[in-house]
Amino acid sequence: MEIRPTTDQDLDVFVDTIHAAFGRFSETPAEGGRGVWWSALEMDRNLLATAADGRPIGTAGAYSFELTLPGEVVVPAVGVTAVGVLPSHRRQGVLNAMMRHQLAELRSRGEVFAVLLASEALIYRRFGYGPATYTRQLTVQRHQAAFALPRARATAGTPTIGSVEVLRRAECGEILEEVYDRYRRAQPGALSRPHRWWAMGAGQPPISSAPRYVVVHRDVDGVPDGYASYSLDDHETLTVDETIATDDAVFTALAQFVLGHDLVTQVVFKHFPPEHPLRWQLADFRAGQVSRDTDWLWVRLLDVPRALTARGWSLDGELVLEVEDPFLGEHSRYLLTVRDGKGECVPTDREPDLSLDVSDLSSIYLGGTTPSMLVRAGHIQVHQPGVAALADALFRAERLPHCLHWF
Q1: Which of 124, 227, 251, 327 is catalytic?
Q2: Which CATH superfamily is domain 2-111 in?
Q3: Is 83 a known ligand-binding residue?
Q4: pTM of the entire structure?
């Protein structure tokens, strides 16, 4: 078996191989190659595994993204994608070899973070990835969608609601791109959407050019600061692809709009933020039914010291972390010291406070999974009393991480 980087000339072979691995057929792209997921592939970052006779048997891709960390720190991150092995060559070590090759290449480039969306939850933990953001779906029956009157008095700092307008997807591409970019820079766990994605329609709505209505919210000065992309099916279900808002008040205004739509029996919010207060804003708390509560973005720390010094911190303290990386055969111990929102991480031979797998460190890194949860699950070992509570406080983010981007 050989694993080699791809070039632009390998695009058709790469796409055909990954589709065969998942038992799917290729779509026909629009003129100029637009409108298909692979139109944003970066062929200089992909890998192709071939058998001894030269036949392609596996693929692994990578996108260049930016990831927002706690503290509104924006860093480069590699989005691992299109990982697959032909059914005829599974259980023969092809996947392990590709992932090992890819991790070595990413480290040689100086990358600190790799992220992915896991098609199967059992696969990627053994390669050091851990679930770090979560998503869910909220369904609201329209006849139960009345909003409660706010019980708190408005203050001088209460934001003034602007206006909304309905546009077709084809009319507002620049608005979507600009609003999303502002949103993702302030949201921990969010990924960038490079201009190429929007220009090529590469991805799911509203990035793709699939017919959608978009309700755009503007502030009092007329500047767009939020949107909701939606469609209505024949069964009177209005499905919101995503709701992007720069604050809770804008999100609420967008939610009120779609929940008041005529000829609708229920509204489905996909990728509903885990901590949004919408259910509390409804007069009937049970009107919002949660489903599809699942993992979304998986994170893999490639350089632990650089990762721990990159993010922002909201509490002073120190921890000694003993980190195992079984896939790469590494065992390290680090002293993490946080002062005034900045972290310092250096090797140490002090006795550890916590012992954990790199996948568990990756899960708690963005603040969406508490260390104490993994202690209770039997994954993180605590060596000192009170350390789990301290780790919870240290790793907590100002906002729960959330990622909407599909790749």
Answers
A1: 124
A2: Gcn5-related N-acetyltransferase (GNAT) (3.40.630.30)
A3: yes
A4: 0.95
